[in-house]
Design goal:
CATH superfamily: Creatinase/methionine aminopeptidase superfamily
CATH class: Alpha Beta
Order of helices and strands: EEEEHHHEEHEEE
Distance between the termini: 16 Å
Number of strands: 9
CATH architecture: Alpha-Beta Complex
Number of domains: 1
Strand order of the largest sheet: 6-5-7-8-9
């Protein structure tokens, strides 16, 4: 399995930050499909809950619950802003909100990246996925155009 996190600079100097995972060979193994499905579920859930006017704490409280086997290797920043680089806000996941994070509000016009890394401590492989979205007055508009591997689900 190969995972790739872009963090590249695009037109007019704006950052594009998406992540994808692929397998070497024709088809993923059952374990690769399981890891991919969990990462996909985390990104899909955390994107679906985003609404303008939500507090960062509310996002952290409503986030996808990471299964215990993947918790130690989780990305501590599940959502971050993006513009000319990785920027404000940085929304972490509980239980560290009180000591490592800050509150704020999701606002229209924010460009956010929703991230996942799913891999067990001592596991052979892991999956990194990330989608870039725009917060609008009415919800979320996906900005990433490179498809996810939905046939693996």
């Amino acid at each position: 399995m190969i995972s790739f996190d872009t963090d590249l600079i695009g037109p007019y100097g704006y950052c594009c930050d998406i992540s994808r995972a692929w397998v070497c060979g024709d088809r993923p193994s059952d374990e690769q499909r399981r890891l991919y499905a969990a990462a996909f579920a985390q990104v899909a859930h955390n994107t679906a809950i985003l609404r303008p006017g939500m507090s960062f704490r509310e996002v952290a409280e409503r986030r996808w619950p990471i299964p215990e086997e993947f918790l130690a290797n989780r990305y501590t920043g599940m959502i971050h802003g993006v513009g000319l680089a990785d920027e404000y806000p940085a929304i972490g996941s509980l239980p560290n909100f009180e000591t490592e994070d800050y509150d704020g509000t999701i606002e229209p016009g924010m460009t956010l990246c929703v991230e996942s890394y799913i891999g067990a401590v001592g596991g052979r492989e892991g999956v990194k996925l990330e989608e870039q979205v725009l917060v609008t007055e009415t919800g979320i508009e996906p900005l990433s155009r490179y498809p996810l591997e939905t046939d693996w689900l």
